[in-house]
Amino acid sequence: MIYDLLIVGGGINGCAIARDAAGRGLSVRLVEQGDLAQGTSSASTKLIHGGLRYLELYEFRLVHEALAERELLLAAAPHVIWPLKFVLPYEKGLRPVWLLRLGLFLYDHLARRKRLEGSHMVRLAGDALGAPLREAYHVGFTYADCWVDDSRLVVLNARDAAERGATISVGARLVHAERRGDHWRATVADGETIEARALINAAGPWVSQVIEDALRIPSRKHVRLVKGSHLVLRKLFEGAQAYILQNPDGRIIFTIPYEREFTLVGTTDVSYDGRPGAVAISDAETDYLLASLNHFLRQPATRDDIVWSYAGLRPLYDDGSLKASVVTRDYAFDLDAPEDAAPSLSIFGGKITTARRLAEHALDQLASFLPPHGAAWTARAVFPGGDMPQGFDRFLDDLKRDKPFLGDELALRLARAYGTRVFQILNDARSLDALGRDFGCGLSEAEIAYLCEGEWARTAQDILWRRSKLGLHISAEQQMALREFVGA
């Protein structure tokens, strides 16, 4: 068959486009060289946000779009996205109070806000919000954004796309693609050939590599790779609030409660000139994050507190900025469509928050090259598992009542990961034993089967670090047992 659309890349952009296109009635094939969300999309700071700092770069359109998307996504995926309060301590000698007030006022009003509270000035001294901070911080501000389980949001996009007819292929690296008149003929690593009327290059950090090595077409745009690294430390403070901390170099870092037992700190912005691939945090980045953190905290953190770190490459659109921290976080398209030839669309940049809107824009770019299809639809659609008309808390209460054998902790983990789809794992089970062998933290044979059969997981790494973060919680022996069970 000839697909309407071949998408290269199984990150947030590629999967969001696949979901949108399949829902419009187009035939879609997505190929991903590794696992879904294996690159940039699982290495984020785990936020759905407007980008408060982008206001300083005059990225008003981007902030407006991101804030509007924040509202839509919170309603569409209440199991993997939820509100998060941020505390911004005032740092004397950096951004003045009036500038912080102005920025937060704009942040409150650049887009319609229904579900999140507005910003407020707070007296940190004597307040629980100020308890983790050094006594020098008397005044601050609070505002709201959202937390997201980034890699699960990618999988939910792919799951929805597949249920609407898309074919999702993981472990399928594009080797070569060439135009054959009005369509593309592509070859993947296992030798399969795929034909499609249009091709979208959503390969993230590999976008330029795909253009040059696989498509062999000219491009007027370039990617700028920036490495962002994060630390996960033992829990540093009590409470559900997060902190946004200003640094003398103008950058900010986030300090966020993570996985109940930990604190997430990040991110860095370091220019990266090598070929795209796996990256790791450097000693210099570790020192930078710890120094930034300890400038604010009452109880300093050390390297001994670090339990994990991760790093990823952000494929930013190269706008000519000299400093990595000020390169635009907006996205750009490069449409290559010679007369009477099949088109390709390459995507540079983008954010998890704006991926749904990016998908709409991408399909607008290709509309005249594709068969007649439906209109945009995703703005009012929930993600798989997100159909909770009475809210997440009510759903969780009902789950614990219906499946009391789960206990509070496991019920919460499963509800957050799968939402209403959890019943495809639990079925009519009335005990934990009915779910099969437990590999730790309630990770059962039934859940593993669901992940492998319904969410494209192939290895223990896929399960422990992208479909979940159970790698932080279960022992080395349990992880080894899982690898033996899965076979990879």
Give a quick summary of the entry.
The protein is α+β, with helices and mostly antiparallel strands and 488 residues long. 30% of the residues lie in helices and 24% in strands. It has helices at 12-23, 60-76, 97-109, 150-163, 207-215, 283-294, 355-366, 392-402, 407-418, 423-426, 445-454, 460-466, 476-486; strands at 2-8, 28-32, 47-48, 81-89, 120-123, 139-148, 167-170, 174-180, 183-188, 193-201, 223-234, 242-246, 252-258, 262-266, 270-271, 306-317, 331-336, 344-349.
Write the layout of secondary structure elements.
Layout lengths: L1 E7 L3 H12 L4 E5 L14 E2 L11 H17 L4 E9 L7 H13 L10 E4 L15 E10 L1 H14 L3 E4 L3 E7 L2 E6 L4 E9 L5 H9 L7 E12 L7 E5 L5 E7 L3 E5 L3 E2 L11 H12 L11 E12 L13 E6 L7 E6 L5 H12 L25 H11 L4 H12 L4 H4 L18 H10 L5 H7 L9 H11 L2
Parallel strand pairs: 1-2, 1-10, 2-7, 4-12, 10-18
Antiparallel strand pairs: 3-6, 4-6, 5-6, 8-9, 9-10, 11-14, 11-15, 11-16, 12-13, 13-14, 17-18
Helix pairs in contact: 1-4, 1-7, 8-9
Structure description:
With 488 residues, this protein is of the alpha+beta class. Helices cover 30% and strands 24% of the residues. The protein is built from 13 helices and 18 strands. The protein has helices at 12-23, 60-76, 97-109, 150-163, 207-215, 283-294, 355-366, 392-402, 407-418, 423-426, 445-454, 460-466, 476-486, and strands at residues 2-8, 28-32, 47-48, 81-89, 120-123, 139-148, 167-170, 174-180, 183-188, 193-201, 223-234, 242-246, 252-258, 262-266, 270-271, 306-317, 331-336, 344-349. The strands form two sheets. Strands 3, 4, 5, 6, 11, 12, 13, 14, 15 and 16 form a ten-stranded mixed β-sheet that branches. 47% of the residues are buried. The model has no long low-confidence stretch (mean pLDDT 94).
